[in-house]
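Why does residue order matter? Because the sequence determines the fold. Keep that principle in mind as you read this record.
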Amino acid sequence: MINTNQGWTSMMLRLQTGFDEKGAPQFKDKTYSRVLPSVSQDDVYAVGEALASLSSYKLHHIQRLDREDLTRN
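Structure:
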Protein backbone atom coordinates (compact mmCIF):
# COMPACT_ATOMS: atom_id res chain seq x y z
CA MET A 1 0.00 0.00 0.00
CA ILE A 2 1.23 3.49 -0.88
CA ASN A 3 0.85 6.30 1.64
CA THR A 4 0.83 9.98 0.74
CA ASN A 5 1.99 12.84 2.90
CA GLN A 6 1.54 16.49 2.06
CA GLY A 7 4.92 17.86 1.01
CA TRP A 8 5.98 21.45 0.59
CA THR A 9 4.43 23.78 -1.93
CA SER A 10 6.36 26.02 -4.33
CA MET A 11 5.35 29.11 -6.24
CA MET A 12 6.72 29.89 -9.69
CA LEU A 13 6.50 33.30 -11.32
CA ARG A 14 6.78 33.41 -15.10
CA LEU A 15 8.08 36.82 -16.14
CA GLN A 16 8.18 38.13 -19.68
CA THR A 17 11.70 39.42 -20.26
CA GLY A 18 11.27 40.68 -23.81
CA PHE A 19 11.01 39.38 -27.35
CA ASP A 20 13.31 37.38 -29.59
CA GLU A 21 14.34 38.40 -33.11
CA LYS A 22 11.15 36.83 -34.54
CA GLY A 23 8.89 38.75 -32.15
CA ALA A 24 8.06 35.78 -29.91
CA PRO A 25 7.94 36.55 -26.20
CA GLN A 26 10.80 35.35 -24.00
CA PHE A 27 10.24 34.26 -20.41
CA LYS A 28 12.19 33.70 -17.23
CA ASP A 29 10.89 31.58 -14.36
CA LYS A 30 11.58 32.38 -10.73
CA THR A 31 10.66 29.70 -8.17
CA TYR A 32 10.11 30.23 -4.46
CA SER A 33 10.18 27.01 -2.46
CA ARG A 34 8.90 26.02 0.97
CA VAL A 35 5.52 27.73 0.71
CA LEU A 36 3.23 26.33 3.38
CA PRO A 37 0.67 23.94 1.84
CA SER A 38 -2.08 25.48 4.00
CA VAL A 39 -1.77 28.90 2.31
CA SER A 40 -4.83 29.82 0.23
CA GLN A 41 -4.72 30.28 -3.55
CA ASP A 42 -5.61 33.96 -3.09
CA ASP A 43 -2.70 34.51 -0.71
CA VAL A 44 -0.22 32.74 -3.01
CA TYR A 45 -1.37 34.93 -5.90
CA ALA A 46 -1.19 38.13 -3.82
CA VAL A 47 2.36 37.35 -2.68
CA GLY A 48 3.34 36.42 -6.25
CA GLU A 49 2.01 39.73 -7.56
CA ALA A 50 3.85 41.62 -4.81
CA LEU A 51 7.13 39.87 -5.60
CA ALA A 52 6.68 40.40 -9.34
CA SER A 53 6.10 44.12 -8.76
CA LEU A 54 9.70 44.32 -7.50
CA SER A 55 10.94 43.20 -10.92
CA SER A 56 11.28 45.32 -14.02
CA TYR A 57 9.71 42.47 -16.03
CA LYS A 58 6.00 41.95 -16.69
CA LEU A 59 4.28 39.10 -14.81
CA HIS A 60 2.84 36.57 -17.25
CA HIS A 61 1.41 34.07 -14.75
CA ILE A 62 1.87 32.39 -11.38
CA GLN A 63 1.97 28.63 -10.80
CA ARG A 64 1.37 26.88 -7.51
CA LEU A 65 3.23 23.58 -7.39
CA ASP A 66 1.91 21.22 -4.70
CA ARG A 67 3.95 18.13 -3.85
CA GLU A 68 3.08 14.88 -2.15
CA ASP A 69 5.55 12.44 -0.68
CA LEU A 70 4.80 8.80 -1.54
CA THR A 71 5.95 5.97 0.72
CA ARG A 72 5.34 2.24 0.78
CA ASN A 73 4.39 0.35 3.93
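The CA atoms of residues 12 and 71 lie 26 Å apart.
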